Amino acid sequence: MKKSLKTLAGLSLAGLLLGSANLGYVAAQDSESSEAASSESVESTESSESTDTTEGEETEGSELQQAVAAAVEAYNAEYAETEINEIDVELNRDGSYEIDVDGFDADNDYEITYRSDNGEVTSREVDSEDDNQDEQALDLEALISIDEATEIALAEVGLETATHWNLDQDDDNNNPEWEVSFDEDENGGQEAEVVIDATDGTVLETELDD
Apex CA 46: angle with CA 44 and CA 49, to 5°? Predict the structure, then answer.
């Protein structure tokens, strides 16, 4: 009987030890699972933040700059095998923009008019041209943006609202230039025009009329 009790006690003790070991194993597994879930959560958050940042970078710039980018994209969709040589932007009374994008190839000149209020191309023109050998394409990626040109012009004349922008090659030296204009109706009776080197932001000419 004593032997049986000793045997039973030994089995009970072994069972307790085995149970404790199992509990420790389960706890360790739970801890590892929790750490893995936490790690995945952190990675998910970082991924989300990275995505948000990327999306923010894609949409950088003012409404004006985004409208110009959309107009250029629309032009390229219409005339993919041509080069852009001029962009002209007009501020409308309702705050929207009307944007003309001009381009060329060896045989023709092309133009679209894009409106920012509805995001649509409202007109298209194709004209035959036999003398396009001297035309120079604008390398838009290498030039200052319309937002940068506007900021430079505003600082130069001290007015509030630019109303017209033109990006084109200078007739004399083929250097790309931004011409930023200020209408008197939007600037307390004052008119101004600022010509800016589109490659480095240097102010080339300023006209300010009272």
Answer: 110
Coil, helix or strand for 168? strand
Q: Tell me which residue of 149, 139, 150 sits closest to 201, measured CA to CA.
A: 149
What is the dihedral angle through the alpha carbons of 48, 53, 56, 58, rounded to the nearest 10 degrees?
A: -100
Rounded to two decimals, the pTM is: 0.72
d(CA 210, CA 189): 7
Do residues 160 and 186 make contact, with C-beta atoms less than 8 angstroms apart? yes
Residue type, position 111, single letter: E
Give strand pairing partners of 104. 83, 109
Contact 97, 64 (CB under 8 A): yes
What is the share, in percent, of the chain residues with pLDDT greater than 70? 72
pLDDT per residue as tens digits for the range 94-132: 999 999 999 999 999 999 999 999 999 999 999 998 777
The set of residues, in sequence order, having a beta carbon less than 8 Å from that of 73 and lying 6+ positions away, is none
